[in-house]
Amino acid sequence: MRNVKRFLSLILTVAMTLGMVACGAADTTSSNSDASSADSTKEAAAESSTPGSYDQVTYAYCTFNNIPTEEDLDVVEEAINEITREKIGAEITLMPIQIFEYSSKINLALQGGEKIDIFESLGDFGSYVSSDMCYDITDLIDTYAPGAKEIVGDSWLDACKSNGVLYGIPTMKPIALTPMLIYRQDIADELGIDISKVNSIEDVTEVLRAVKAGKPDMIPLAAVQTGEIGLSTNYGEVDFLNDDRYKPIGVLVGDDLTVTDLYGTDHFRDLCKLVRGWYNDGLVMQDAATTNSAAAETMSSGNYFGYLAAYSYPEEDTAASLEAQVAGYDLGAKIIGDAYLSTSDINAITFMVASTTDVPEAALKFLDLTYTDEDIINLLIYGIEGRDYVKNADGSVSYPEGQDAATVPYTAQLSCGTLGNFFKMYQMGVANDASLEWELEQNKSAKTSPAMGFTFDSSNVKTQYTAVLNVISQYLPGLICGSLDPDTEIDKFIQALNDAGYQDILNEKQTQLDAWKAGK
Amino acid sequence: MEKTLVKSRKKRFSNLSLALIALPGVLYLIINNYIPMFGVFLAFKKYSLKKGIFGSDWAGFDNFKFLFKTKDAFIMTRNTVLYNVAFIIIGTIVAIAVAVMMCELGDKKRVKGFQALLLLPNLLSWVVIGFIVYAFLNADSGYLNNTVLRTLGINPVSWYATTGPWPAILIIVFLWKNMGYQSIVYMASISGIDKSIYEAAAIDGASKMKQIFKITLPLLKPTVITLVLMSIGRIFYSDFGLFYQVPQNSGALFSVTQTIDTYVYRGLMELNDVGMSAAAGLYQSFVGFVLVLIANFTVRKIDPDNALF
Amino acid sequence: MTESKAFNRVSTVILTILVVLAMLPIVLIVVASFTAETTLIRDGYRFMPKELSLDAYYYMLKQGKIILRSYGVSFLVTFGGTAVSVLLTTMLAYPMARKAFKYRNLLAFFVFFTMLFNGGIVPSYIMWTRFFHIKDTIWALMIPNYLVSAFNVILVKNYFQNSIPDSLIEAAQLDGASEFQIFVKVMLPLAVPTVATISLFTGIAYWNDWTNGLYYVNNEKFYSIQQLLMKIMSNIQALRSNSNASLLGTGAVDLPSTSVRMAMAVIGILPIVIIYPFVQKYLVKGVIVGAVKG
After folding, report:
1. Rounded distance, CA C70 to CA C78, Å?
2. Residue-wise pLDDT tens digits, A349-368
3. Fewer CB within 10 Å of terminal CB in chain A, N or C?
4. Is A160 in contact with A168 (CB distance < 8 Å)?
5. Is the CB of A289 less than 8 angstroms away from the CB of B250?
6. What pLDDT score was predicted for residue B107?
7. Number of A:B CB contacts under 8 A?
8. What is the pLDDT of residue B202?
């Protein structure tokens, strides 16, 4: 039973992280990283002077595609090994694991003493660190993964630290989530709604009213997922300090380093009132708090006008790619807020070296290649050229004639953006460099939390956590979906939180945050 | 003198060969259940992968605290126990009733058909069942609101926000899923009853009802006692799917749907703490264990043949 | 006689109602799996949907070969596992039921204890993978957890104890039969109803299981049908929530996720529905016939 639970929570995590995954990037990073990787190559080659005795590194990664057969996987492995033997003196064993079993399998395998040298955090960074599953790479990274370090940058690496110790390297991908209104372009045109005037969540109200007036049968706003109609991505400049954005416990607001109770803020109350208004006026789905359909499904019924969510690509790309999922309805996307980056956005997918590894240096060297070496990255994602994919004239790639993701011997195409460096991958279908630039720019320009790099260790307040999380799942979905009246329920909510030991967690967070700040 | 010696040797031999017959099963349980039981130590440890299960630091009873230091402790324990009691009582009555009726049907083909159909719900996962229940109860397009209540002229009910009906709903869903499955045990027991007893009773002019109440039910007693004793052992456990998937994790229903398992799940989803989940399991098992020992002791006093051990 | 007939009639009526009630939701699932995705979301689940569609099954058909292979794995595991399990279970239960057996209570306690306490998955995992090396083999689906269930052992013991008279055993002993012979020749044939019951329970448990696969199987060659369905569903869910630009034009359009979920439920229980009558036939002497008098 316990694993059903793990599985469920994993699905939620994935639903969240996947919002940030996108594929199809061309090589836009400058060539200076290549130089550094060449240096480490030389070093590595010198170290492994005895041919035949290569370090063995097992790379466990999660795939959304089929697991290839052993024979087909061997071919890819061998192609990777041809590079790694020479460059880093190591041989790689690939261990693709289905997304839905990834966390349980990694946990079991590590605890069962199996050989896994590299794995990814998939949203569980904190718990891997607190159960000692990851190797301290603070001192090793400069020597063995300088390329990755440079590409990712120090500020992102800080997000993978706990108590000053570096435990992993985050994937390099478009990470900044920008809140948007996704809406039916055809309906907006028909009703003459000027979406360009919508610049905040408050502005959305007018649009919803117009839809309700023009199309009384339509439900203007859908839930993006169970218990969530889009408030969570519209809190503004809020750092959730390592908690799930869907279950905030003590946050930072703006540039202030004081741990704040989000639920007690006027901002939260106003947002709940806003949604409550929508709910009472019939502008949102009535059972958003318990629905079991995600926005894409709901939208494809044609009965809904739009939903609020956050994505990491430009408006047009977002709309275009979502259209495929909503039965081809004409969609538009409008940015209604700014992206905001905090620690857990970045360490959501972190590659870590297992604490049980016997080859930490080789593991790091290979990890480095997954950020710097175009060939390695594309072998991991697309497999063997000619067999698993073909290159097009514009530099993008596609599946061979008559094949698709389900039939080629090897592909991990849907995992792109979770493996190493997204910006060095071939693009699938059509190359679009402009979007890539926008994404890189968003990564750089997104406002960053003042506590970037702070990770919270919850072990002193675990008891309070369990109680508080239960209280949150009791009240929060109802409040942010409008089915609970904020005027009466927020106070009850806060009272229940305090009874559950909420304040202890806030205090502990503040203490750790102060210590972190002092140590900086 | 000689005779008793032979007898006791025979007895020893008999004990030995009986033990040998049990041996494969015993070995399996040792490998599959007993040796891995050292994992319960985790409940008292602050787990660290590097240090391993035995090497990790002791945490005393810290891992257990979260089960008690909450206002919900009473609610979740009450819900877990009350639902289990309801399931044991109602479930047993319904299962026996179904089994008795099946056995009285006489027509083999029909019994086969009925039995197969009643078993089907047991093959569905709770996730799918959650969907079905949702299809009946959801506010916008649900069957009850849209079809049944509308026809009756009753205002629609927001089922996932109204606690009142949920104990009944959960019991119905439980029965729906398990009725067929549980009745099978009783059917097997009934079929083990010596037919000549019924024939004799029929000759004596006992009515069908009398036969059921005077012969069938008393002879089912051992089976009922065994099954109830086993259920008591799991009285602090709840079927997670039934209490989590079926109410769609709706916060408004927590006061009637929160059980120990759902509380632990909701609380540990983020923390992912090995020690705390081990502690929860140990606590649930331990309470069940104590209750079973008491119950079994009582049964042993009254009716030694029917005690579990 | 008329009283008995009346009783029979009442039973039939009540059971028919129960069966219909039990079947309604199942019918709903089947209908939903044939309903167009958009209709499903707009109108909810209906017994008479406005628009029918085979999309869900087309989607599953694309995975046809894999599904067939997984059916094969599931059948093998279910039948193989159940056979071994029934043997081990009855052998364990028999001594417990013999009043002559000195350690019967100890053994009963030993068995029952496993129902209550367990050490969690990690120690079991270490045991089975490190010492028995069952990872990524068919044994991984059969051996851990399901071979001996305390619940079944106690059911069988209970049956042996209450339904088989001691005189039979004594008679066999007088004939000079060994304990093993008594077990095989006297007890097992008389225990058919309970053997049928536990076979059914064990079979269902094996068929529905996906946890062994989750823990011990990574090679898709050994995916059981449940594990496969789980995988398909979670991948759809992942694709759905992933606004993946590169999916454009690759044909992964319009994933019918709700109806697929229903189709998967149908696919998961369909083989059981098909083979159940045959299994029942093989258990002629089992529950049903044994239970039906006259």
Report:
1. 12
2. 899 999 999 999 999 999 99
3. C
4. yes
5. yes
6. 66
7. 122
8. 87
> HEC string of chain C?
CHHHHHHHHHHHHHHHHHHHHHHHHHHHHHHHHCECHHHHHHHCCCCCCCCECCHHHHHHHHCHHHHHHHHHHHHHHHHHHHHHHHHHHHHHHHHHHCCCCCCHHHHHHHHHHHHHCCCCHHHHHHHHHHHCCCCCCCHHHHCCCCCCCHHHHHHHHHHHHHHCCHHHHHHHHHCCCCHHHHHHHHHHHHCHHHHHHHHHHHHHHHHHCCHHHHHHCCCHHHCCHHHHHHHHHHHHHHHHHCCCHHHCCCCCCCCCHHHHHHHHHHHHHHHHHHHHHHHHHHCCCCHHHHHCCC
> Is the distance from CB of B160 to CB of B137 less than 8 angstroms?
yes
CATH superfamily for B72-131+160-306 is MetI-like (1.10.3720.10)
Average pLDDT, chain B: 88
Domain containing residue C262: CATH number: 1.10.3720.10
Confidence of residue C84 (pLDDT cuts 50, 70, 90): very high
Q: What is the percentage of chain A residues whose pLDDT exceeds 90?
A: 42
Q: Among B208, B222, B215, B218, which Cα is nearest to B104's?
A: B208
Domain count, chain C: 1
Is the torsion defined by CA of C13, C15, C17, C23 positive or negative?
negative
Q: Count CB neighbours of A436 within 10 A.
A: 22
pLDDT at B248: 87
**Which residue, chain included where needed, has tokens 């440079």?**
A150
Rounded Cα distance between C58 and C76, Å, is 26
| In contact, A42 and A147? CB cutoff 8 Å | no
- Domain extents for chain B? 72-131+160-306
User: pLDDT tens digits, residue range C184-241?
Assistant: 988 888 888 888 889 889 999 999 998 999 899 988 889 999 998 888 877 776 665 5
Chains that touch B (3 or more CB pairs under 8 A): A, C
What are C111-133's pLDDT values in tens digits? 999 999 988 888 899 899 989 99
Asked if C8 and B104 come within 8 Å (Cβ–Cβ), the reply is yes
What gap in Å lies between CA A496 and CA A281, rounded to an integer?
Answer: 29
Q: Is B123 exposed, middle or buried (0-12, 13-18, 19+ CB in 10 A)?
A: buried
- Structural domain of residue C223, as residue ranges? 61-239+251-291
Residues A128/A134, Cβ–Cβ less than 8 Å: yes
Task: Name the residue with tokens 């979670």.
Answer: C234
Nearest to C98 by CA among C25, C147, C157: C157
Query: B35 touching C, CB under 8 A?
Result: yes
Q: Which residue has the tokens 């087309």?
A: C58
Nearest by CB: C235 against A64, A301, A416: A64
User: Can you list the residues of chain B whose pLDDT is less than 50?
Assistant: 1
pLDDT digits (tens, 9 = 90+) for A280-334: 999 998 888 887 777 777 887 888 999 998 887 788 877 877 776 777 788 899 9
Phi, psi of C286 (to 5 degrees): -80, -150
Tokens 């309970």 — which residue? Answer: C194
Q: Cβ-count burial of C221 within 10 angstroms (0-12 exposed, 13-18 middle, 19+ buried)?
A: middle
CA B204 to chain centre: 40
Q: Where are the domains of chain A?
A: 28-174+346-444
User: With an 8 Å Cβ cutoff, are B192 and C106 in contact?
Assistant: no
Fold of A28-174+346-444: D-Maltodextrin-Binding Protein; domain 2 (3.40.190)
* Joined tokens for residue C187: 């007890």
Distance CA B104, CA B186 (A): 13
As for the ipTM of the complex, it is 0.89
CB C160 within 8 A of CB B226: no
Is residue C119 within 8 A of residue A111, CB to CB? The reply is: no
* Cross-chain residue pair A112–C130, CB shorter than 8 Å: yes
Q: Which chains touch C (3 or more CB pairs under 8 A)?
A: A, B
